[in-house]
């Protein structure tokens, strides 16, 4: 039996006989020949079957093989510049593990609902493959950035006793007779972590009962959240831009083939170099006003507002100091203008909108208690959090980046539903 290799590694076996364990992607015949396009998860290779080069049975099997049939092919690797991947397999034997039933996803166009219903199979297509490999690279680069920067990983819990990002998007669940909420953000726990370790981050699934159907909102998404003690808002913005630059550079370096498969122009991503522009909320409103876009000063930016603001720049833009009124209870007010919060949103270019939200946290016990009251939140649920302001309170900041928003932007996708293996949306809990 020849050595089993992955398609990604065939170049190292040029001229040698190997075995591939794969699935049939596509096939065509020209009488005495079969061209089988096969995939094994690491790549795609064209495999050529000559009528005289294999047994009669094997040649017949090619005729019966359907798309996605599982097959083991043995043959000789040969360089062929015209072929996908630059190599071909000259087949000497094929073992069919299963002839697949008629595969629902054919190369013809399918509607999004149909594809989403078949997400478990759709993952096999080359486009989805490319997107999820970029996602993996983004996650790897995120971890690399923090691990290499002296941050300690502190995992946040998923069951929580209180809200972090407002009560309107909480998922609750019975917890042995009392109510637990699925976490909206690990931030409050990271604040505890930062007081213990100085620099921490968490990365995990977060949940929001988003009742709106938009192309940017999932009900379950993955967030990476750093938190740093003795860091102010300006330092937080420095960290955020360094972080995003690192991610984009990593994808350009390690996933250029996938970007090409997605027809993503790398030139646009190559512009993502520090420093990023920093504008205040007031300046962002001025952009909207100049574009004659209707917007009520004092409110939060909606998807369209963000799109217009971000289109004014060819790099991510950081919008800071939103009205405190519309922001979360934990944000610190700007001492120079207490009506504003020391917060920042990073908006991705090309109209992608917010990818990061963060800022400096309120570190004064009395002011924080006042804010919890004003937001109508139950004080007792935050007793542990308030302890952090009693025992060595310091200025501190952090942010959260939603992985799916970053993937959508970097891959150039119109909707976040393709950025996560199994998306959870208001009307989608399957597969
Ligand atoms: O701006 P958000 O709500 O900020 C927080 O949760 C902070 N507690 C984070 C922190 O400071 N540690 O959410 C942060 C990011 C957004 O910028 C966006 O990228 C993503 O999380 N996000 C969503 N992604 C997909 N679907 C949703 N429904 C999302 N809501 C937020
Ligand atoms: Mg936000």
- Count every helix, treating DSSP H or I runs of 4 or more residues as helices: 13
Distance between the termini: 39 Å
The main sheet comes to: 8 strands, mixed
Structural class: alpha+beta
Q: Helix amount, in percent?
A: 25-40%
Radius of gyration: 26 Å
Mean pLDDT: 96
Bound molecules: 4-amino-1,4-dioxobutan-2-aminium adenosine-5'-monophosphate, magnesium ion
Poorly predicted parts: none
CATH class term of the largest domain: Alpha Beta
Q: What amount of the residues lies in strands?
A: 25-35%
Would you count the extended β strands for me? 19
- The overall number of domains is 2
CATH architecture call of the largest domain = 2-Layer Sandwich
CATH homology-level superfamily of the largest domain: Bira Bifunctional Protein, Domain 2
| General form | elongated
CATH topology of the largest domain: BirA Bifunctional Protein, domain 2
Give the strand order of the largest sheet, numbering strands 1, 2, ... along the chain.
7-11-12-19-18-17-14-13
Oligomer: single chain
How is this structure best summarized?
This protein is of the alpha+beta class and 431 residues long. It has 13 helices and 19 strands. The strands form four sheets. Strands 7-11-12-19-18-17-14-13 form an eight-stranded mixed beta sheet. Strands 2-3-4-6-5 form a five-stranded mixed beta barrel. Strands 8-10-9 form a three-stranded antiparallel beta sheet, with no helix packed on it.
């Amino acid at each position: 039996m020849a050595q089993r290799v992955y398609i990604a590694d065939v170049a190292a076996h040029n001229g040698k006989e190997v075995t591939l364990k794969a699935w049939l992607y596509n096939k065509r015949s020209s009488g005495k020949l079969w061209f089988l396009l096969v995939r094994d998860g690491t790549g795609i290779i064209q495999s050529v079957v000559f009528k005289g080069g294999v047994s009669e049975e094997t040649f017949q099997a090619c005729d019966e093989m359907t798309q996605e049939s599982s097959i083991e092919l043995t043959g000789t690797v040969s360089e062929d510049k015209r072929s996908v991947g630059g190599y071909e397999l000259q087949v000497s034997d094929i073992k069919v593990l299963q002839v697949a039933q008629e595969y629902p996803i054919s190369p013809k166009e399918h509607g999004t609902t149909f594809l989403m219903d078949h997400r478990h199979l759709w993952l096999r297509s080359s486009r989805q493959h490319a997107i999820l490999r970029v996602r993996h690279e983004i996650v790897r680069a995120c971890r690399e950035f923090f691990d290499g920067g002296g941050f300690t990983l502190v995992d946040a819990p998923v069951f929580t006793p209180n809200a972090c990002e407002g009560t309107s998007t909480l998922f609750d669940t019975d917890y042995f007779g009392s109510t637990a909420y699925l976490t909206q953000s690990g931030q409050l726990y990271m604040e505890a972590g930062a007081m213990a370790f100085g620099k921490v981050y968490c990365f995990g699934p977060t949940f929001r009962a988003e009742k709106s159907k938009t192309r940017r909102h999932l009900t379950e998404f993955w967030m990476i959240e750093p938190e740093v003690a003795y860091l102010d808002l300006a330092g937080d913005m420095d960290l955020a831009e360094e972080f995003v630059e690192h991610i984009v550079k990593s994808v350009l370096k390690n996933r250029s083939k996938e970007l090409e498969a997605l027809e993503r122009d790398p030139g646009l991503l190559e512009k993502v170099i520090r420093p990023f522009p920093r504008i205040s909320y007031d300046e962002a409103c001025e952009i909207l006003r100049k574009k004659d876009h209707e917007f009520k000063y004092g409110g939060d930016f909606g998807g369209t507002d963000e799109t217009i603001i971000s289109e004014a720049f060819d790099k991510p833009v950081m919008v800071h100091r939103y009205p405190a009124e519309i922001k979360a209870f934990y944000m610190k007010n700007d001492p120079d203008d207490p009506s504003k919060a020391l917060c920042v949103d990073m908006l991705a270019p090309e109209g992608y909108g917010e990818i990061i939200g963060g800022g400096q946290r309120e570190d004064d016990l009395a002011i924080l208690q006042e804010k919890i009251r004003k937001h109508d939140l139950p004080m007792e649920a935050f007793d542990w959090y308030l302890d952090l302001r009693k025992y060595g309170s310091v200025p501190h900041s952090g942010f959260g980046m939603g992985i799916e928003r970053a993937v959508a932007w970097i891959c150039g996708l119109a909707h976040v539903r393709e950025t996560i293996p199994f998306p959870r949306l208001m009307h989608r809990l399957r597969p």
